[in-house]
């Protein structure tokens, strides 16, 4: 091995980086971003879980145990809100406006102190998210332990009512929808990045635009082909999830595919837009982790959005995977239909239109 | 009534940031001729073709192609363009490459079918229609690229160095084909470095650093500069331009 030749190769490789400022920036910024976002978001601890409280406890001989129990729910895990509405608090959970309801019946303290009957704390839970369920149960149990530290808790029972899912809903059930969307995201963005870079190389893009072909036609044509691929891929991923891991789908499977397709189209637009803003393959491929990382960490794929620190939360609502993941989660675990996931669908449609139009503009600039 | 002029450029200026690729080029190319666009690398030949195709707008000045101002690009389907880059999909067959571009310029499927056979015959690739372009030699790929430009029988051919890497025998058959095209009223504009090719053109123009130095029939340019061949003629013209 000749040292001089080896060093010549090393020097050449470094000088190529020197001429590519964006890549240079990427080498520094990407790991930094990864560490920061990972560190702050991947705790898995949930915060401010919206929990409604229906405290009808009338007390007994001047004591109201329910109040004591609620006082002993400390920390920011649960965000307790007294239910004052007219309807049933259960409907709030069913509509996804609250994760849980804690109810104390009128005779709670009386039963507890007299032992005439079992004192029951009612819990209405959205079981579609096991991390949330265990956070709620954990906090309530901790409060019981603390309140009755000296004398135990005779005759106290927790009555659990699952609006969605059940005690058997596994963690994997809750993150499967998000992972399916994530898999679609990865393939669609990478494919579209590669496709456009390939068009650009060898003068293809220029030749295409020397015909009457319009940029918007090119972009929609590519998106159409990629949609077919994305659809086939969603079928494989979703089927594998269902068959291999016994993921239950409470809602409509075609609707789940529809959501995935909407999501995939927007990703392609984004991929085309970004890769056409890149000068070479190296710059193009750098966009992929840039999309994947925030998607992985900020979108509630593995943990509910409540596990993301509030400082990062606004970013969560900018990342499209948040909506795709939420829609799929609601279809697969809650059995929701198109009306209930309407907001997600509208956001995804806007995402599609904006990115495809953006892609057409960016592609045009290339030729 | 079609205009007698295939291409008319008026004071075309094209700047890319600091670089001035075309510095006020005025040029007329009549219909029915082979026209050689000559000049060293960076003279602005390719940029001029791109302006004529509407791929890039001129910074100032105008281009009228086949009687229509560019842009808009409504006249584009009547133009056949072979770029300097290979611009052939290597992961598609020869036939698929041709069919794609036939569809993009609006040809019917049966026309694509019959024309494909004709143009592949011309570029001597008739037997390679179903070959992946990646399996072809460099010269064959360029011939595929030429076939793609010829497929829709355009009124105007803009060929950017079409004969690079093509052997002399085939190059000669290309030239006789181009001659046949001009007899049918088609116009063939070719950029080239080969002076012996330039002398086959009806008319030539010399571009140098974004300026037009001369335009005329090869023989006329030779006699004007008292040169034995076009090479010498152009060297003289470039020297004069530098002195001025």
Structure summary:
With 367 residues, chain A is α/β, with parallel strands linked by helices. Chain A has helices spanning 3-18, 21-41, 65-71, 89-94, 108-114, 130-147, 171-200, 204-209, 215-245, 253-276, 281-298, 313-316, 320-334, 342-366; strands at 49-55, 78-82, 100-104, 119-126, 156-164.
Account of the protein in words:
The complex is a heterodimer of chains A (367) and B (244). Chain A is of the alpha/beta class. Chain A folds into 2 domains: 49-164, abc type-2 transporter like domain (abc type-2 transporter like fold); 170-366, no CATH class. In chain A, 62% of the residues lie in helices and 9% in strands. Chain A has helices spanning 3-18, 21-41, 65-71, 89-94, 108-114, 130-147, 171-200, 204-209, 215-245, 253-276, 281-298, 313-316, 320-334, 342-366, and strands at residues 49-55, 78-82, 100-104, 119-126, 156-164. Chain A has a 5-stranded mixed β-sheet. In chain A, helix 3 (65-71) links the parallel strand 1 (49-55) and strand 2. In chain A, helix 3 crosses helix 6 and helix 10 packs antiparallel against helix 13 (320-334). Chain A is elongated and about 90 Å long. The mean pLDDT of chain A is 85. In chain B, strand 7, helix 5 and strand 8 form a beta-alpha-beta unit. The model of chain B has no long low-confidence stretch (mean pLDDT 91). With 244 residues, chain B is α/β, with parallel strands linked by helices. Chain B has one domain: Rossmann fold, CATH 3.40.50. Chain B has a 6-stranded mixed β-sheet with strand order 6-7-8-3-9-10, sandwiched between helices. A 4-stranded antiparallel β-sheet of chain B has the order 2-1-4-5, with helices on one face. Chain B contains 8 helices and 10 strands. The interface between A and B is medium-sized, with 12 and 21 residues.
